[in-house]
């Protein structure tokens, strides 16, 4: 007879082999509790970020300068709601409860990305969010399409396709503004100056200060370190800035012939810690709006629950009724 310890060891060995062979872990499979908890933490934070991330750009839907820009922005913000929903569903495959995850966000017990705690002051911010924030999201999330947990990796495939459209719409908006007036060009440069450093912070603390990285990389949830992804983002974005005709606000930014990559300055890590802890320019506003939206949606949740209960009662009656009774 197999003892509980031996069974646990066998499960662990099978899990380790799955990871070593670069195969996917699926919801039906045994997994270590710490792996499951790490995934729920990361996926929930990611989902919350998509939902809170609707706010900064959503604020410009009623003020978009043309019908075309309004339609594009509407579509983008709706996509973000969709991303949140795929991700909450992925978390549910790990046994998490969506209502509980939402409660954790609303009570400040779970995080969301620091980047959404900065204000969108002009319409150029909409373009820069598309270019930088969605660009950073692509750098971070394309490798997550190969994440070891199947439902997360599969959700990422569609999300990345949509992020790619988001990034292009942002860049195209900025190209249009740069072809406009001096005032419009100044608006773009100002938005670039404000969003550059917070965008670099999206990738998380430096590797030397990233407590979750070692385990997440060993489990192949994360495929690259925070610093490597930040560096890829800089390498990708600098030529785009040159083409656009804007300056990135980093005096240390320069091409390094030897490494074949760009060297760049150090973000203000104390600012990242402050924003993560709730003390960013818009944390209070974002959370207040999220709580308000949740309260406003209570009747929809109640109606959906009542409807589901009614359907279940009907199904039960039908199952009990003799054939042909017509219930
Ligand atoms: N903001 O050990 P570390 C989007 C936390 S949505 C806040 O390196 P990890 C979009 C971290 O959670 C973009 N918190 O952690 C939507 C951890 O705290 P806990 C969202 C941060 O998990 C709308 C602690 O700091 N993307 O693209 O190994 C419109 C230590 O960090 C941040 C994702 O969520 C931060 N920036 O690595 C447009 C991607 N950075 O949990 C666009 C998925 C770190 O221990 N997530 N923290 O209390 C990831 O790839 C990883 O979770 C991270 C952090 C790279 C973010």
UniProtKB/TrEMBL annotation:
Residues 304-327 are annotated as: Disordered. InterPro entries: Aromatic_CoA_ox/epox (IPR052703), Ferritin-like (IPR012347), Ferritin-like_SF (IPR009078), PaaA (IPR011881), PaaA_PaaC (IPR007814). GO terms for biological process: phenylacetate catabolic process. Pfam families: PaaA_PaaC. SUPFAM superfamilies: Ferritin-like (SSF47240). Coiled coil: none annotated. One of its GO terms (molecular function) is phenylacetyl-CoA 1,2-epoxidase activity. GO terms for cellular component: cytosol. It comes from the Bacteria. This is Ring-1,2-phenylacetyl-CoA epoxidase subunit PaaA. It comes from Actinacidiphila guanduensis.
